[in-house]
Amino acid sequence: MAVEWSKVLLNVMKSGNVIIGSRRTLKAIKKGEVKVVVLASNCPDEVKKAVAESGVRMVEFPGIGVDLGTLCGKPFSVAALAILDEKSAEMFTEVA
């Protein structure tokens, strides 16, 4: 059964085990802290490429960065966010 993005992102944001922003996400990947990366559909290609080359699992959010930011409770566009713990990462296996 598929789970809604809004529910998953709300739970992940409450957990506090998330990094918002493409620069911060890429830094966390280099440190080996990231389990899953969520990318907005309009995320810059260079960020997508860097995440893909890292081998970290990517999940593409179906909306643009403004939509992702809104669901994360932020008043700005979010191109990428990193999930840092395994429990939160598992929630993204059933997102539709």
Please, could you describe this protein's structure?
The chain is an alpha+beta fold. It contains five helices and four strands; from the N terminus they run αβαβαβαβα. A four-stranded mixed sheet has the order 1-4-2-3, sandwiched between helices. Helix 3 links the parallel strand 2 and strand 3. Helix 2 (22-31) packs parallel to helix 3. The model has no long low-confidence stretch (mean pLDDT 89).
Distance between the termini: 9 Å
- SSE succession: HEHEHEHEH
Structural class: alpha+beta
What is the residue-mean pLDDT, rounded to a whole number?
A: 89
Please report which band the strand proportion falls in: under 5%, 5-15%, 15-25%, 25-35%, 35-45% or over 45%. 15-25%
Strand order in space, largest sheet = 1-4-2-3
Low-confidence parts lasting 5 or more residues at pLDDT below 50?
none
Helix content: 40-55%
What is the rounded Rg? 12 Å
* Number of E-state strands: 4
> What coarse outline follows from CA principal-axis ratios?
globular
Counted by DSSP, the helix tally is 5
What can be said about the biggest beta sheet? 4 strands, mixed
Explain the layout of strands and helices:
Elements: H1 5-15, E1 18-20, H2 22-31, E2 36-39, H3 45-54, E3 57-60, H4 65-71, E4 80-83, H5 86-90
Parallel strand pairs: 2-3
Antiparallel strand pairs: 1-4, 2-4
Helix pairs in contact: 2-3
List keywords for this structure.
about 100 residues; alpha+beta; about 15% strand
